[in-house]
């Protein structure tokens, strides 16, 4: 049996990589405008980071982590990162960044791993572009982060985005709300799906976004968090809404948006692109004012988001919003015979040292086949060297767009081509 890639993973071939480069460049550009600097953290971390950071009762931690120990390090458990916020906070603490600056704005791109059921838009290895702001409790930062996502998606040309916003409260007001939810659902416990039954006492907020139809019906009339927010959370949420209005961001208030990770406090949001179907969440995030302390750091309010890069590409593909790949001007050197090949090789090297894309035949093709290949790679210029040209120490340059030709001395062919290519 031929070896296949693991289920839920993907190969990206060169024709797809151009699209990845395109979105990555746009992401880097917008991060520059908003003042975010890039970080890169390990693809695997100490398992405890995610247990404590994301929460043991979340689906991500309880069902979806790739965890292993290996070699002579059998006591140590590692986990492929299922997300990057916990890692960013770990790096923030381990590198004592909090002591060096009082506001930290980071972004990242990379692979994440979750052992979920693969389907369109949901993979076991996927890529996130995310950003984190550490050190501010102001709703101005919340709105900046949301504005950045919306601007990026709009600049890609996506229309009809659905921005959902909620407040999930804080350790002051959430316990009362949790209790209200438990009281609401307890009498219906037996009718809930097995997941919700086990979540009822551990994480009752998650019952609000269960996709099971019976659970959905049973949750009609459940108490809403907005009625239970403390003064501080309420003021924060009101200010955020005012700022989003001022930035002309269209959003929907969704009191059932609870998100799947335990670290959220106050603001939670998701940006959906409904034509994607079941996996329509292109980006999600929120405030996590307690996470740095949870990981033994100083009190540091923070907020961030992550965007699924595969989902973004699916959306752009669907709407035909990916640009045509640019054709790099290439030079192909057609040569016949050993002496001509040697000269072609030297010219190739000279051009490549000047970063001109130059290619020659390496498969013993006929003159006709070499010209055909030159066309295939969209060569703008073809250098032709046959026996006659070589005898005269000359080469022919063919301009492929016009089929015009010029004969130049062998010694100046590289220089002539370089000046043509570089304009
Ligand atoms: P998340 O909602 O779990 O949040 O993931 C963010 C985005 O990653 C999702 O909206 C989705 O686009 C994409 N995504 C998640 N799982 C998959 C999957 N299996 N296949 C494809 N795409 C997926 C977080 O990860 C938080 N760390 C976001 C955050 C940053 N909150 C604060 N700071």
Automatic annotation (TrEMBL):
GO molecular function, one term: catalytic activity, acting on a protein
One Pfam family hit: HGTP_anticodon
Record keywords: Aminoacyl-tRNA synthetase, ATP-binding, Cytoplasm, Ligase, Nucleotide-binding, Protein biosynthesis
One Gene Ontology cellular component annotation held by this UniProt entry: cytoplasm
The protein's Enzyme Commission number: 6.1.1.21
Cross-referenced CDD domains: HisRS-like_core, HisRS_anticodon
Catalytic activity: tRNA(His) + L-histidine + ATP = L-histidyl-tRNA(His) + AMP + diphosphate + H(+)
Domain Aminoacyl-transfer RNA synthetases class-II family profile: 23-329
InterPro entries, per database record: aa-tRNA-synth_II, aa-tRNA-synth_II/BPL/LPL, Anticodon-bd, Anticodon-bd_dom_sf, His-tRNA-ligase, HisRS-like_core, HisRS/HisZ, HisRS_anticodon
Enzyme class: ligase
Subcellular location, principal: cytoplasm
This protein's record includes keyword Transmembrane helix: no
Subunit and interaction comment: Homodimer.
Family statement: Belongs to the class-II aminoacyl-tRNA synthetase family.
Protein name as it appears in the record: Histidine--tRNA ligase
Organism: Veillonella tobetsuensis
């Amino acid at each position: 049996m031929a070896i296949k890639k693991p289920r839920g993973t993907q190969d990206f071939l060169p024709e797809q990589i151009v699209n990845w480069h395109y979105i990555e460049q746009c992401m880097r550009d917008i991060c520059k405008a908003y003042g975010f600097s890039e970080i890169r953290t390990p693809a695997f971390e100490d398992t405890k980071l995610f247990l404590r950071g994301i929460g043991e009762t979340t689906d991500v931690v309880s069902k979806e982590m790739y965890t292993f120990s290996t070699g002579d390090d059998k006591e140590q458990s590692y986990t492929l990162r299922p997300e990057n916020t916990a890692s960013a906070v770990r790096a923030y603490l381990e590198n004592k960044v909090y002591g060096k600056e009082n506001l930290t704005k980071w972004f990242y791109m990379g692979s994440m791993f979750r052992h979920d059921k693969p389907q369109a838009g949901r993979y076991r290895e996927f890529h996130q572009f995310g950003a984190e702001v550490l050190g501010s409790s102001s709703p101005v930062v919340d709105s900046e982060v949301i504005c950045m996502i919306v601007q990026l998606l709009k600049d890609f040309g996506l229309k009809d985005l659905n921005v959902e916003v909620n407040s999930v409260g804080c350790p002051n007001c959430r316990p009362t709300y949790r209790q209200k939810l438990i009281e609401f659902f307890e009498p219906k416990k037996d009718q809930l799906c097995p997941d919700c039954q086990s979540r009822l006492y551990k994480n009752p907020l998650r019952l609000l976004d269960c996709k099971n139809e019976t659970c959905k019906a049973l949750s009609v009339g459940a108490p809403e968090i907005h009625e239970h927010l403390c003064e501080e959370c309420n003021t924060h949420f009101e200010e955020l809404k005012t700022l989003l209005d001022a930035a002309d961001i269209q959003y929907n208030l969704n009191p059932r948006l609870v998100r799947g990770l335990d670290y959220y406090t106050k603001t939670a949001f998701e940006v959906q692109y409904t034509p994607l179907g079941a996996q329509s969440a292109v980006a999600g995030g929120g405030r996590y004012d307690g996470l740095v302390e949870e990981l033994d750091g100083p009190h540091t309010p923070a907020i961030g988001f992550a965007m699924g890069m595969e989902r973004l590409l699916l959306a752009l593909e669907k709407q035909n919003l990916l640009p045509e790949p640019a054709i790099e001007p290439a030079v192909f050197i057609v040569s016949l015979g050993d002496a001509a090949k040697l000269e072609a090789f030297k010219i190739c090297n000279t051009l490549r040292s000047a970063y001109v894309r130059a290619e020659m035949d390496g498969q013993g093709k006929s003159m006709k086949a070499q010209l055909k290949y030159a066309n295939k790679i969209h060569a703008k210029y073809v250098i032709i060297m046959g026996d006659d040209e070589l005898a005269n120490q000359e080469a022919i340059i063919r301009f492929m767009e016009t089929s015009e030709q010029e004969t130049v001395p062998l010694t100046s062919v590289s220089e002539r081509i370089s000046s043509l290519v570089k304009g």
